[in-house]
Every structure is written in structure tokens, then in C-alpha cells.
Amino acid sequence: MAVHVYNVTRWQLLSLFCLKYIFQNTLQSFVHHFIEYKVSLMSSETEIVNLIGLLQHELFPEKPHTPRSSSEVLRRKTDALTTLLRYPPELFVELVGVDRFKEGTSILFEALQCSEVNKQLLFSLFDVIVLELFPELAGDGDADH
Question: Per the confidence metrics, is the pTM higher than 0.70?
Fold first, then answer.
């Protein structure tokens, strides 16, 4: 993806791979402990019920949302892209190049603007989460098809 979307050169890609190997264990350990901590905070029954309620409200609202004006849609889209462009570490942006980073991130952002695809991704993610929490729901696989 880095080569095709961000037009990264071979030496930049090799530099990123070197950094990945250097920081992988440290970062992976930190992320694992951070996620473990957050899950422990949210594993109470009331938090799970609250999260499911929020998800249900977002996916299946009781009242249809009032349509946003085109200027509101454009403003929200611009804000989201601006936030996304500020997210990655500066080292990554400098290695890839500011212009290439902005162009590649804009391409990825535009690709994720289809609400039907986003709902399908969310449903797939929800399936994975449910199967991780309740592996007995997976069954044999033969009975499903």
C-alpha cells in the first residue's frame, strides 16, 4: 500500500521496515497492555450494556436523522480529513514526504466515504468481536454453509 498509495521509494520503505523491527516489541507490548487496561475498564456489565446501546442507536436510530446541508457535510468532511492528516507521527510524514502523505491519505479517506461499505466493515468487526468474546458461537463451520 505504501508504494502504490503514497509513492514511497525503495529506500524509504526499507527505512520504515527497519524502524518497525526496532520499535515493534516495545510498541507492541505497550499497545497490548494499554488495550488490556481499557478492556478491563469496560468489561463491567453496565459498560457493555451502555456500549451496545450506543452502537444500536447509531446503527438503527429511532428517528431518522435530519438531512445535513451540503455545506455542513463539506465542513465535517474537511474537519475529518484535517484531523486524519494530523494523526500519524511526524517521522512517518517526513520519511514519506509531506505532499505524498497528504495525497495518499486523501485517497484512502475518499475510499472510506461509502456508508454502505463502512456499515459492512462495522458488521464484520462486530462479528469478529462477538466470536472472540464467545467462541462457542463459532460452531463447526460446516453447519453454517
Answer: no
| Separate counts of helices (H) and strands (E) for the chain | 7, 0
Pair 6, 101: CB distance under 8 Å: yes
Which parts of the chain sit beneath pLDDT 70? 1-3, 64-65, 140-145
pLDDT tens sequence across 42-67: 777 788 888 888 888 877 777 766 78
